[in-house]
## 1
Amino acid sequence: MAGTLRLGFDVGGTFTDGVLMRDREVLAKAKALTTEDVTTGIINALDELLKSSGVNPAEIGMVSLGTTHTTNAIIERRNLNKVGIFRLAAPATTAIPPLTGWPEDLKRAIGGPEFVHIIRGGSEYDGRDIAPLDEGAIAEACRKMKGKVDSVAITGVFSPIIPKHEERAAEIVRDVLGDEVHITLSHRIATISLLERENSAILNASVITVMRRAVESLKEAVKERGINAPLFIVQNDGSVMSADYAVDYPIFTVASGPAASVRGAVYLSGIEDGVVVDIGGTSTDVAYIVKGFPRESSITVTIGGVKTNIRCPDLLSIALGGGTIVKHKGEEVVALGPESVGYNLVRLGKAFGGPLLTVHDVAVAKGVLTERLDVFKTDFVTHPEKIEALPKRLVENAWAAIKATLEEAIDKMKTTAEPVPAIFIGGGALVVPREGIAGVSKVLSPEHFEVGGAVGTTIAEIGAYAEGVVDLEREDREEAIARVIEQAKDNAAAAGAIRETVEVMDIEEIPFTYMPGKREKIRVRVKGKIFA
Amino acid sequence: MGVREILAEWGVKEYRRIDKRALAEITLGASILATGGGGDPEIGLLWAYNVVEQGKEILLVDPDDMPDEALATIAGCLGAALVLTEKPPNGQELFWCYEALGRYMGKPVQAVVPPEAGGVNTPVPMAVAGAVGVPVIDADGMGRAFPELQMTSFYIHGVSPSPTVAADEKGHITIADTTDALMAERIIRNAAMAYGGISWIAGYPMTGKQLKETAILRSISLAWELGRRVMEARRRHRDPIQEVISLTKGYRAFQGKIVDINREFGAEKTKGFSMGRITLEGIDDFKGHTAAIDFQNEWLTLHVDGEVRCMPPDLICILDPATGEPIRTDVVKYGYRGVVVLIPAHERMRTKKGIETFGPRYFGYDYDYVPVERLMGD
């Protein structure tokens, strides 16, 4: 590692935040407007950090970011790859072919049904072949899609348990289509549940180029500035993966930004169990943290209209931010948002002489804002007379409505009746009520809370998981679990962690329902350090 | 012969056409009535969507309009829910079942009746009826979901599951023909294991007369209405739980967060089911109270502060308070919040033979069945 300094960036809806860290110390922080291409905003924040800190770029040892590149590409159907789709499953599964239930425009954007093939192959849960893999059919299909697809997604029945058919199919695809066509194997992406895993693999294959370009341009920008450090991307569970790994698994970054915020909140506050409330300009994300990581979402996660089983933090997003418009009739509050003035707060908010009452203005009126945050260029109020003119009852009603909205969101995410600590971070952390929040033991906003997400990207822990199916009649439970732990550690090491530092986060056992015998699925989650 | 010809022969003029929206509504309603089990209904729903998209018609016919002598069978699947999720069907399995059953019995099947108004076995028979070209009868054999082949209103009122045919995606066929319904269950479950975890089944052949005398009538309409009302409530931001309760004459028995999931892993070996108990800590109106729910694939019994409040065959549903979406036993996790809704079982499920077949004692509880209405103090 070239140096001990770490750069971190967090791309939000309004701002891209950046920090420069030494150990736990924040040396510099910056906020730049988020740009349409995302990358330019990051580079702007980077330049500001280098300028304000004056550090020698050679001292920087790690660059990491939480990003919205892939999410935006999928949602906007922009710059997506044409994807060759193989399912190894026939004669099973053909009643529900690949892309069933996908939005038409997204289907078209990735090439449509022309490149979809259901091939004989796949496995039974006990390891038998459904059918021997039809290698000739794969080669034939590849010859037909040559020159027409950018990437290939391969999904085999029960591949999370028995990956051999997916791996063999990949060899054939590479033989015919060459190295320039990227290959996604479903068992590396997600778990049991064929259709959702296949969707996840296809979406992953569709954003390979988007992620590759983002990583390449950032690497180049970093290098041009004399920084010789590896690049890391925050993944959905809040840990990071190397950028080179992210190029192969971009789908793991769809919740990158919010996940980084959670990690930052944990890191800055030292609290590992509680609620994280990240308040931005347009929205607030609430997450419940267990042992320092966000709890996972239990239900299927829909990305761009497609159901996936990608692991994502269980986040509750509500339309409440500093720029959220407070709608009122006289002194009565009618609604909070959902509209926000975003970064136009400084033109449209009452505190800046504008026509609209926002959450920020209510905070100014309540007197809770007393100083300007370094990262914001403007003062928090330029027209105090506009604020003084607000009816007292309206201010109190609005304040109560904001508090009730926050309390409801926090209560929804909590899993314990006891009060838990709440960490308020983000640029809007100071503009909401913090006293007497129901269900909360205390509200903290640790130093640098306003760039908590960017700090969260610099933590340097890699997360990974593994699964295995065992028959407890034939295999000892302890041995089976130990075997899955080793697999998870291998996966973490493959993602860039130092193997000796990898520790187990969670072990889950899931029995096979409706089946005699003692078969069960064991799932292990681990994390490990990038630095010793 | 197609579905239209069958209806013409029966002289049926009134029926309901099941389109994609109806399928989504019926499937949601059936998921709620599945009492936490019944398998992932998404597989059946997507399959049925594809059948409709191919231009096939799925027509729902009232049981009274089915001639007494016409032949109906169930269609669905039996086995491991996880295998179904990973290895969906090719759509031919149930054709082969029907072919084999027709050959074995020497007469064609003219209608499909869903085995369960709950889980995947509600949309699957719709998809099959559409694909095969026969009507779906507005009825089922449980009014809910249960784990075993013999746990139906058909069986307890005298219809034998035999012959029942099981097939897999390669066309392997097993025919169980026995006077012993429990033996039929064992044969079909063992076929499922040999097939890799799932049997696709057609069986319980019955005449229109038998169906009318033994089935839970118009339960598909009930599931449909239930799904429709819950979706409407979501759109209008009304309380979906209240919709469920008012339509099913149910009870809001508890609201809480799941604070413990204790799975009895040994049960897979001894009984072939997922068993266990979840504990909920009360919230809102139920603060300070604790609920325990036992499960065997489906939710079985509810105890609140140690007092029993519901036992099989009455229904226990755990629903998301915001969306009304049911929480399943195979995916339940620590931290879920849910409302526990109790629904009285259909009267046809509450006979002496019914309580013997799927009452609390069959499931190993040392107490007699008491209807949920009495337990809830009505």
## 2
Amino acid sequence: MAVFFGLVLLAAVCALMAVRAVRLLHAALWLAGVSVAVALMLYLVGAYVMAVIELSLSVGLITILLVFAISMVGADSPDRPVPRLLNLPFVAAMLLLVIGLTVPLLASQSRPTEASFAVTFWQQREADVLAQVALIFAGVLGLLGLLTESRSHRPPSRANAPQAAETQPAAAAAEGETELEKV
Amino acid sequence: MTPLHVLLAGAFILLGIGLYGLLVIRNMIKLVIAIQIMVKGAMLAFVVAGGLNGQLNLGQSLALTVITADTIVAIIGLALAIRIQERSGSLDVDEVMNLEG
């Protein structure tokens, strides 16, 4: 039992530090800590498949994506959270609502016999698999659309060298532009 | 109180911290991080609820769907943040909302 309390405490501290961190890179690393704690919880519960997926997707993929995005936006810009007066009461009210709605349902459910994970996932939850495939396609298409469009709408300060327009011939400037487009 | 109840309380704590982050954070990339924390709480709640009802595999399959959607949301959110930063030069949601056009 102490292990579970410790893991919950670890996850809560890492999540709080991720929210309160000033630097984006630190926040991404604290989020990886939350993912590790959640993966350990899932493993101890017996959800081995989800523990592996959580560890590989959240700690691996999402952290790498976050670091990549932080490096793409340039400097690791500091960000200070702006607490307001009604935030904490609002969060408490929402949590009470969620707890009040979900906890009574947990006690009233029956306990049928359970199929294996493969049968549950591939046969009983077939629509979920199709939805996941559609989601992945939508994500890839959305990502391609966003990044392609962003390449064609670069701000003038980046797309053209400022001194090129006046000091160099027009042909050289056009050649530089085509090289930038290729990159 | 069983370990599953402790983990359910942990899921609610993660949900609350993520919601608090969504309310106080102004940086777009950190907003994605706050959403990730919330979704981790929801995913943990799915698995724990499945364990409490004797349907752990059903909870796992639902959590798998949640984590797939969450990854797609993170990817699209980060791409949007990069694109908005390229256009407006800022990641602050207040500054971006004040822009015209």
## 3
Amino acid sequence: MKRSLTSILGLAAALVFPASAALAQAPAAPAAKEVIVWHAYRAEEKTAFEKVVAEYNKAAAGKGIKVTTLAVPYDAFADKISAAVPRGKGPDIFIYAQDRLGGWIAAGNTVEPIDFYLDKATKDRYIPTTLEAMTYRKQIFGLPLNYKVITLIYNKKLVTAPPKTSKELVKLAKSLTNKSAGRFGLAYAYSDFYYHACLMNGFGGGVFDAEFKPTLNRKENVKSLDLLLKWIDKEEILPAEPSSALITSLFNEGKAAMVFSGPWFLGEIAKGVDYGLAMLPTLNEADDKPMRPWMTVEGVYVAAPSKNKEAAFDFVKYVTDKPAGVIMALEGRQTPANKFVYEDSKVGADSILKAFRQQVDVAIPMPNLPEMTMVWSPATTAMNSIVKKSAKPKAAMAQAQQSVEKDIAGLRKK
Amino acid sequence: MKDKAGHDELPHLPLHIFLIIFVLIATYPILWVVTIALSGKQSLALATLPDRIAVTEERLVQNIPGLNDEEATAIVEALENAKWIDERGILTLKPERDKVAPLLPAELSKYAEPLHKDLMVCLAEPSTLDRLRAITPWPETFSLENFRAVFRDQPFGRWIINSAVIATATTILGVFLACTAGYAFSRFSFPGRRAGLMSFLVSQMFPGTLMLVPLYIIVVQWLQLGSSRIGLTLIYATTSIPFCVWMLKGYFDTIPKELEEAALIDGASPGVIFWRIVLPLAKPAVAVTALFSFMTGWNEFIQAATFMDKEELYTAPVGLRFFVGGFSQQWGYFSAGAIIVSIPIVILFLFLQKYLVSGLTAGSVKG
Amino acid sequence: MESGSPSHRLRFGIGIGAGAAVAILLGHFLLGGALSNLAEQRETRQGIVTLRALSDLVSRTADGDGLRKAVTEFQKAYPELKSIRVVLLEGASLEASTDPADTGEWAAPRQLSRDEKKNEKPVFDLMQKIRGTVEANREEKTAKEELEIGRLADGSGFSLAGPLEKNGEVTGLVEIKRSSAAAATRPGWITTLLYIAVPILLLVGLSFGVGNKQIPLAICAAVLLIGTIWGYGVQSRSKINREGLAASDAVASTAKTGGERVQSILQGLGIQAEPALNPASWDSDLARRPRAVLTPDLKVDPAKAMSAFAGVGTAVTRATILLIILGVAIALFFGMGWAELFARTLRVHRTAYYYVTPAMVGMIILVFFPFAYGITLSFTDYNIYTTGKPLTEIFNGFQNYVEILTDFQIAKRSADGSWAFNYYNFYWTFFFTIVWTISNVTIGVTLGLILALVLNTKTLALKPIYRVLLVLPWAVPNYITALVWRGMFHQQYGVVNQAIQMFGGSPVSWSDTPFTSFLTALATNGWLSFPFMMVVSLGALQSIPADLYEAARVDGATRWQQFTSITLPSLKPALVPAIILSVVWTFNMFNIIYLVTAGQPAGSTEILITQAYKFAFEKYRYGYAAAYSTVIFGILLVYGVFQNRITKASEGI
């Protein structure tokens, strides 16, 4: 036994050391201009993205640019960027949602501003709000690749005509709800602040004002919460403790007729469930204004310490152009920010892509301020206590506002 | 009861019962993981109750006296049109007595009363058996699709090998360094012994979650060990050493010194004494530390994801997290992957457990 | 001390020599650094005055030829400027330039170029950045740096850039490159060597009076060193002050000539200086706040100029004290014979050190270095907005600790006047962390130990199978099992509530109250942690020789007596460290809380580590989070020492 143990040890040691020595030598001879891209895509999104990269490499071979990609798990992405990029060890380009953008800009030496490269024609390619998401204090730091918005997804077997207004929604949902059987007309992760934002923004509420001051306690926000409570308690159309896993299961089992969710949800719908997409309804309670979901935009950023910025930008421009967008839309099932993509005949004929394209017109870019990360935790606490009835909306939001103000004061002391 | 060695033992039956109960508790959540993995679906498991009894023509004919087939069809149609029941015949809302009659075609309204009664039956509370089924981790349909998908979409096999290599190297390095250090702390008395021993303990006290950036600076910038298995091995080994040192030191303390003294008189060198006499006696503790070190290297995610810049160098936990990050979450794949990565641990434990339970009592060492 | 060792005189001679040499040499280099810093500062200040004179001039001219003419004239008046560039935001155009590279096809005015060799993107980005900062400062009443300073690549000077403003709007960027002229005064080597030699000679002299006695020699050496180093400190300080005042004089004259030159250029262009120029305001910091050292008639206000050096003064004092401590420590190290003792110890116990060193080196590099870094950060206001700054600049002493430990806000008044318990309060979190730790470790250890004892029954069948099945919770990645546990506690669809209803109970909303929420996390973590304790206990049980039990039985001990008098004491050496460590790990068990309760409801189930994490990654206050971590560390350290004292775990045999 002892012998076998030592032989295992020897084998393992032999595997570790020469292997890593060989790998350490590998990057010694790089191609003319290697541009490295980090992204967090997976499955068909990754396949489509890699296809775009391959096409670019073919097209740009003459320029001597070669793009290589690295997929990084989403959960580690932001930490990895924050650790590697400012120390010059990171990629030339990375792709991530705009919510961390402000933080990286404030931290410095992470994201390269790109106004200098941009002409009007390029700026005009994008849905304006998606470019707005890439803008921080009037400077543009990346180009928008794809956006994600929440919309109304319904089970076609249970819902024939999706509701256009909140009154219709409630009426329809009520007729489809049977609480004791665990069936609900409507299900969404309403206690998640991100999801609640559809209602909040619909009422004209928001998290920050124009001067970047937190405004969690504004009265529009409170009104939107009152409506949510009405939906839960009086109309009884929503399930309790709505985690995203629960929503998926309910919808797949035909126990939730309608959900508010985004493109990620479509991948989780089981085979055989016939679903349709529609605009989120307008709110009769808020002068018939539409519900306005938050939009997250995946931006393509050039890393500030990159040595090949021009080459990197060349790729950034390519990947946010129409042909690349069409591939990502049709094969990666993503929703590109380039508005010309939707003029493509195949994309235009795709009802799902069309639905998201419509929804995005009323969507609001999620704030990209560094201070945004301070909002989540107090907002979640507030949402939970409101939903669990341990606090009234007004008091809970005031509490959250206080807490965010305190945190911001702590950060901006100087 | 007395066995050969003369132990008197507790009666075995209650012990078995106790152990079985505990095994059930220990494995129950894992059975859910297995269920999710084998379901072929992606959602986290839920204890869902079965649907209500379906309202079908046959049922109505059987339960409502005097009803014929055509009438039953008409009733079901009426119920469907009114959205009382869904396409499967399942009641979606609570039938109210006074609303049943207007729903039906005039000629059938005489059946309103018995129909309401029957609808109420269809809406009965779930039975204990239903609930039992709901809490039994057993997939409705079996499919190995999740397991296939784990290997299909990405080089998961390669990542498992990486993990195995790194975890094995961590184990060897960690256990070796901990053995020598633990032995010194146990047997020698030297200035700084207490402080040294305490410093190993202290090293576990500073919260590690916030140390990623300084560690990055040291490993990647100073030691130039980014994207290297050696770097990751070193990090994991230092993570596991403190526990290993303390565990081994504690165990060495229980090994009688007389054995070594005798060997010393026979002229054996300290090295020989350590390797030939002390270490074989400490097998149980070495087994524990080996398992611990291996686990440290095997399941770690964030450092592996941060320090490795090449896809072919990722480890299994990094690969697993691809399934659940961000907005979309494929729990089926994740569960399948989690089961796959648990298997080597179980095998390792099977291999180590005979050392784990071999000790001073093994015979040769009396005295 | 012992006979045969060298005399105390010799030892103290070496000691004071080494102490004085190290301390004074360090002082020498520090002074050198401070002086060259001052010289640099002085040039920067002069540069700022020049830049602001230029921006003042340019902003009074009309764009186009008038602007270019003014720039050319200004360049003529300032030979020390290598170049001047004026860039306008509109059209990203280079409006004027005296840079030799900007001639011919590159002559101004033209658009900024993307040409690879030129690469003028940094200038454009700088302009944008400065515009952003000026606007932010105006809107948010902050004072961030509006002027940007940079070293020239060839080391011959520095560049300074600032905003060009018209009618209160930032319209562009003015940049100058200025050569460095004056070399800093260096501290003299003769003085330094004298400061080192004097205490040695004095000690030699004194030793004849005192004799070869240890304590009096030690006192003499210490006093001499304190005196010498303090003297060096005082001298350094006065030197720094002199240089500082001279700098202000130089700046005053730069401002004065600058005012005259700008005035004459304006006259040449036929522009009225309206409102009048105010050269005194040009002497500003990088946020363009006036330093107020110059009076309006461009005289130096000595009191103000001196007060600008107050910070330097305390820094010198602080450095002097540290140097004294260092010097005296070195002197005593040698003088008291500790050096020899140290070397001898290393020699005598070298086997032990050989055995321990490899593990220790790894720990020092990969664990204690990051540690030290964290503790250092805890004394600063390091946050996302101060990442680029040197740590000395954002040092804030114990402020973070005070803020953490004086968080006594147990209750909060909400908007409608009602009071709510503030679970985010440090002391609640601390209390909860203790409850969490104790309950978890108790459950883990008890279950683990009981199972190990049962599984240690010699003739029990199926033991290997039980062991493997029971170790499973440890083997499966806890990311998924923790979430399965959370799902099991779902109010409507959770297994737990279904089971409760099976037996006729009514469902519980587990996440509604702090207590039930705590129970869910406790169940999860207890389930996750007992296998580890079981394995450790199993291993430890093997160290108990069977004959002990036999002897006890012969003496007629009951099973319980055997357990308490044989099993428990024999388990102690291996089990106590495992318990201490699992207390430490549970105390910092981030994952489970994060995944299972996420701190809800209302933050009541946050533990200290999840709070620290929030301060770092949600609130971007790295320094504060580091202080939080250090507090956690302190608490655990106290526990560790205390526990160790009780159980004597590190005492050994």
## 4
Amino acid sequence: MKRQDSKMPMRVEPLRRATRPSFRALSTEFARFVRFILEELKPKGKILTPFNVITGVIILVGLVIIVVRFAKGLGAVTNLSQEFPWGLWIGFDVVTGVAFAGGAYVLTFMVYILGLEKYHPIARITVLNGFLAYAFYAGALLLDIGRPWHIFNPIIGNSFGAASVMFLVAWHFFLYTVAEFVEFSPAIGEWLGYRRLTRILQSLTLAAVIFGIMLSTGHQSGLGALFLMAKGKLHPLWYSSLLPVSFFVSSIFAGLSMVILEGTISERVFSDRIPGTHKASHGEIVVGLSRVCVGAMFVYLFLEVAKLINEGTIGYLATPMGAWYLLEVLGFMLIPAGLFLLGARSANLFMLKIAAFGTVLGVALNRLNVSIIAYKWNAPFHYVPSWMEIWVTLAVISAEIWALRWIVRRMPVYEEHEEHLDVEELSVKEGVQWKAM
Amino acid sequence: MDIRRRDFLKLTGLAAATGILGPGGNGRVLGAETGPKDDGYGLLIDTTRCVGCRSCELACAEANGLKEPEQFGDEAIFQRVRTTSPDAFTVVNRYETQKGQVFRKQQCMHCLQPACESACLVRALRKHPEGPVTWNDKKCLGCRYCMISCPFDVPKFEYNSPNPRIRKCTLCFERVKAGKQTACAEACPVEAIRFGKRSELLETAKTRIYQNQDSYVHSIYGEHEAGGTSVMYLSAVPFEQLGLNTGLDKKPYPELTQEYLHNIVLVDLFFPIFLLGISYAVKGREKEIKAQTREEER
């Protein structure tokens, strides 16, 4: 079917909604829509690049492991045990991944609530990254939970475990993914060429952003709150009643650091898709985001000190776990924060990127410490992920990059939003004709 | 004045929780309902009486359709400390203590306010008024948060099954409903396991301690641990020598996340309004600036 279509010499015309929808118009429209989608499904660019071959192999082997996991149970592919029920798939894919995806809610807050237009050019790509992250982490979650066919029980079942932080996280997670999709949907509307639909979707953006921020506050902190139940199991240096707050605050700089790093990578990879004006403002954006990071990081470090004093755990600093904790907080939080501060002053982009990289490592270390490493730190046989768990994690990341690339190559992710500019300019000129259109 | 404000916030939270979360919430989030009182059934395990015959293990396996206990009748099994598993809801271990070798049976403690129950997002784990904490096959989605939460590490997961279940002692819920005692209590030849109402068990325990002051430590494990449990222990030696965690909170575990849940309900209620306010304020300011620049241009 697909092959036949692709043989036809065909120019894809922008789709336009028929003014008077008749059955015939609708059916030709539908046929056009299908042709357009089929045309877009074809890969663009070279297929056999080293990146594609490597990630392709990773994904294929990952799929085999996933089949084994569903046929024989989690024990066949993971090193999980009765002592360690959560491993890499929760600790990294979900707990760490969600922190990294925090850039979307922080950036939409800056752009749509605070009206900081400077950051508008990267709003769409950030939201897209966030949405894909959630879509794929939810996917990874399906692999980890034992009975995924019951995944919608907390949403539709008549069995609301409302006293559970997990219940709160599940709902916020689910609704946030929807909100992110709504935030990104105008780009899909533009891609399909439906102008009116795009406009309707755009009118939903502010509401989606507001709910998105609320929902992010809930589940970012909620992931930390999950471990409040692990009292006595999580090392006292990490366990604290402030866990939800520090998870929330660290998601701010983790997300923005990710935005800085992703921007650096896509600048090279998707160079042809990024307009020149955007490239010129990139440096300014990085400096601005770095300033926000510095602020949030110092709040975080202050919280860490408050925790030590509040919980009376300073004594543990002199133990081996204390050294490990200091490496996380001083080595991967304080030093990157310092680099951010210095780099933002001198607008040294290289230094800022190093700082962002250090921060990302630091937050990953923090999340892995809370969920895996410092959890039952004194157990005689501590959990270490199996190669298959690591492999599947890499496969999930590879698949996400494929999806991202597919979308960026097709949809207006980096371009200025035409519609948006139209509306802005017209309203400045006090022209209201567009409303009558 | 301060108190009033607090009450107001609590009330708002309550209204929000019942409104947003619906009947499933049951007000339990807010701790309005403190869970079953002491009148449920439970077990009193007297480790001074236990002789390590493992009859309870055998009876448990039969009652629950589990595998026969491993190395049954073989003393060598006591050389290592075992834990419960998906195939063994109760195990007896031997501990070297200051008063020689002591045996202790372990199983689910059936907390009065179970951590697992509050952790479960689909209420698959429930504390019944009769005392038992049970797991529901139709609801569980296998997230294993109960295992993270349980202070006694009781829930066990079937890692080697494509349709895994959470497995643990059910305090013989079906038997209890039918008016019988648990299989383990029935099987014990030395009356080391006593089945009964928790309040009566507490009285029995206190009487035994009072009448034999030298042969018991003067406390009951499970009276207050994790907010109190339906299964309780008596011992001649400090409980930590029997592998019991004596460092547990006396507060019920659900309280650990209660405050957070209160706060997040408020965040969900007031954040959207707050954000909408900021965005309107900013928009208004932007219009002003634009109007100004236009005038300047003229």
